[in-house]
């Protein structure tokens, strides 16, 4: 750039000088100077302090395509058909937006405009599969005519719900972590039975017993007692106190299946025998 400026300045001065004295000088020295300046422009970039690498890049800002296509002549009928097709595509996209997107887990969600969060809506198959992974299956609500509560039986079972194991018997009440997709008074089947036993036999699973099942009823969803979490770092003026209440579900065990139940012998009632009191004899004095 500097060489070009010098060359342009010399050209202006020489043109003004030659215009005043046209016969005093010839153009041969100027041609030699121009050849020298052109040779300076070919100096490598590390000797040229004004070298700009971006200036050597040639970019084309033309909006024309390389291979222009001939214009297409469209009739009025074809334009109407295209408009109808675009309207149908817009309707389909609006329906898809209303239904929501399906994620990798198979759950359909819709974006809330106010908060920007995705509210998930699970399919029935997803709910059943997740409940089976936890260890239960929802049968349905408890009807008023159902007689699920039976008398006590000397049978026990060890069931797994989530990551916890419980030893249960008929009419027992247990608290587990909150079970999703079930409401109060719903009948459940706990299908992850690890062991069942009775006074006469014991059956151990490997790891579960596929033929055994424990029936239960959801009584309520509650909160556990508050737990205080206190954190402290000495000499750092750091103290944090938080509380936590775990969500729980109370289950009532109604029946245990998969093992022979011993018959409870009914104790016969003893007949009351009336004893006659001996009569006192009168003795004469």
From TrEMBL:
InterPro entries: bL21-like (IPR028909), bL21-like_sf (IPR036164), Ribosomal_bL21 (IPR001787), Ribosomal_bL21_CS (IPR018258)
Pfam families: Ribosomal_L21p
Entry keywords, A to Z: Ribonucleoprotein, Ribosomal protein, RNA-binding, rRNA-binding
Chain segments carrying region Disordered: 57-111, 254-285
One GO CC term on file: ribosome
GO process terms (BP): translation
MF annotations from Gene Ontology: rRNA binding; structural constituent of ribosome
Signal peptide: none
Start-end of Acidic residues biased regions: 76-102
SUPFAM superfamilies assigned: L21p-like
Stretches with biased composition (Basic and acidic residues): 64-75, 254-263, 276-285
HAMAP family referenced in this protein's UniProt entry, alphabetically: Ribosomal_bL21
Family note: Belongs to the bacterial ribosomal protein bL21 family.
NCBIfam families: L21
Name listed for the protein in its UniProt record: Large ribosomal subunit protein bL21m
